[in-house]
Write a structure and sequence with these properties.
Blueprint lengths: L11 E3 L10 E2 L11 E10 L1 H11 L3 H15 L11 E10 L14 E4 L8 E10 L4 E10 L5 E3 L6 H8 L3 H9 L5 E5 L4 H14 L4 E6 L2 H10 L4 E4 L5 H11 L5 E6 L7 H6 L1 E9 L6 H10 L5 E4 L7 H11 L1 H11 L2
Parallel strand pairs: 9-10, 9-12, 10-11, 12-13, 13-14
Antiparallel strand pairs: 1-2, 3-4, 3-7, 4-5, 5-8, 6-7
Helix pairs in contact: 1-2, 4-5, 4-10
C-alpha cells in the first residue's frame, strides 16, 4: 500500500497544497486505498441541515432533481461539499478494508458498523446509486463507498438503537457537547431553533447544566415544534419568534429576563440572517455559540461591533471530546426525546 498523509492531503487534487475540506476536488478512487485509510461501504448519508435545505430549495422540492444535484456535486468534487453552504454531513456504513498502518492502532475491524464524525465536505465519496431521498429528515439512502483518513473521527454504532436514529443524532452531537461545556449552574440560556434536531438536545443539556436556579428559553417559529417542546418539558420559557427579526427577539427575551438577557445563546437554525438576533439576546460578556452552518461570521463579527456588544462568539466546531457518548446518552436518559426521535428518524 502507498503511504498516505495523516490529514489526507495525498487525496487533494485541486488546488494542490490545501487540506481536503477547503479543496475543490479530491481523489475519490476507492479501488485502492492508502496505508492509513479506512474504506467503508456506505448505506446512508445524513446531509447537513443547512446544505439539504439549500438543495431542496434549488430543486424546488423535486426528489429526482435533489438526486441529480447531489450526484453532480460528488462527481465534480469527489466529496459531498455543498458549493453554496460549504457544508457536508456524515455517513453510516460497514468497514470493508483497513490500511496496513492502522490495523494495530485502532479499535476497529472489518465488518464493524460505524458512523463518521467528520464532515462529508472533506470525505472522499463515490456514489454508485441513490436509492431513496428522505427529504423530511435530510437523509439519503445510497450504494456508495467512502474513505476515512487517519485523523478522521468515527463512532461504532450502538447496539441499543436503530442505525438511522443514531446517525441522525450523531450528525449534531457537537452541539449538546459544547452546550455542556458552556452552560453553568444558574445561567440563563436561549436556544434558537429549539425544536430542531440539535435544538432539543441542546435544551435538554442546558436544562441539566443550568439547574433549578437557571432558566432555559426555547425560541422557535414552528407551531408544531413549539408544541413538541411543551410536551418534552425541557424549557422554562418557550417563545414563538422569527429569528431573522433581531429587534423582536431582543424585546421578547429582555421581557422574560427582566432586561438581564442571556448568559449563553445557542444558535441551531438552518436559515440565514439570524446573527443579530443571537447577539442582541446575549448580555455583555456573555457567550453566543453559532452551531448553525448558515451563519455568516462576517455578519456576526461586524454586527456585534456595530451595536457595541462585548460578547464572546464561538464557531460551531462539530467536535468535542466525548461528544458522541454525551449525545447518545441523552436518548438513553429521556424517553420523551427518544420516542420523538424514533418517530422522526427511525421509521
Amino acid at each position: 500500500m502507498k503511504k498516505g498523509n495523516k490529514y489526507g492531503i495525498h487525496r487533494v487534487l485541486e488546488p494542490k497544497g490545501v487540506l481536503p475540506q477547503p479543496a475543490t476536488k479530491v481523489d475519490n478512487n476507492v479501488a485502492e486505498i492508502y496505508d492509513n485509510e479506512i474504506l467503508v461501504d456506505v448505506d446512508i448519508l445524513n446531509i447537513d441541515s443547512a446544505s439539504f435545505t439549500q438543495i431542496k430549495e434549488q430543486a424546488g422540492g423535486d426528489v429526482e432533481k435533489i438526486k441529480e444535484i447531489i450526484l453532480n456535486i460528488v462527481a465534480t468534487q469527489g466529496k459531498m461539499k455543498n458549493p453554496i453552504t460549504g457544508s457536508g454531513g456524515m455517513f453510516i456504513g460497514t468497514v470493508i478494508k483497513i490500511g496496513d498502518a492502522l490495523e494495530d492502532k485502532i479499535n476497529l475491524k472489518v465488518g464493524d458498523r460505524i458512523a463518521s464524525l467528520v464532515s462529508l465536505s472533506l470525505t472522499p465519496l463515490k456514489i454508485e446509486e441513490i436509492i431513496e431521498v428522505k427529504a423530511n429528515i435530510d437523509q439519503v439512502i445510497v450504494k456508495a463507498k467512502a474513505i476515512l483518513f487517519e485523523t478522521g473521527l468515527y463512532s461504532k454504532l450502538p447496539i441499543d438503537m436503530p442505525d438511522a436514529l443514531a446517525l441522525a443524532v450523531l450528525d449534531v452531537c457537537g452541539a449538546p457537547a459544547q452546550t455542556a461545556r458552556l452552560v453553568k449552574s444558574g445561567d440563563t440560556v436561549v436556544i434558537i431553533g429549539a425544536s430542531g434536531k440539535s435544538g432539543i438536545l441542546c435544551c435538554y443539556e442546558a436544562k441539566r447544566r443550568a439547574g433549578v436556579t437557571g432558566k432555559v428559553i426555547g425560541v422557535d417559529y414552528s407551531d408544531k415544534g413549539l408544541e413538541a417542546l411543551k410536551k418534552l418539558n425541557i424549557c422554562d420559557e418557550i417563545l414563538k419568534l422569527d429569528a431573522t427579526n433581531a429587534l423582536s427577539c431582543y424585546e421578547a427575551v429582555s421581557k422574560v429576563t427582566n432586561d438581564k438577557l442571556a448568559d449563553v445563546v445557542i444558535n441551531n437554525v438552518n436559515i440565514q440572517n439570524t446573527e443579530m438576533s443571537s447577539i442582541l439576546m446575549c448580555k455583555d460578556r456573555g457567550v453566543v455559540y453559532f452551531f448553525s452552518m448558515a451563519t455568516s461570521f462576517t455578519k456576526a463579527a461586524l454586527g456585534a461591533e456595530g451595536v457595541g456588544k462585548d460578547i464572546d462568539m464561538i464557531v460551531g466546531n462539530g467536535y468535542a471530546l466525548g461528544h458522541a457518548e454525551i449525545t447518545l446518552n441523552i436518548l438513553r436518559e429521556d424517553k420523551g426525546i427518544r420516542d420523538l426521535y424514533e418517530s422522526l428518524y427511525a421509521s
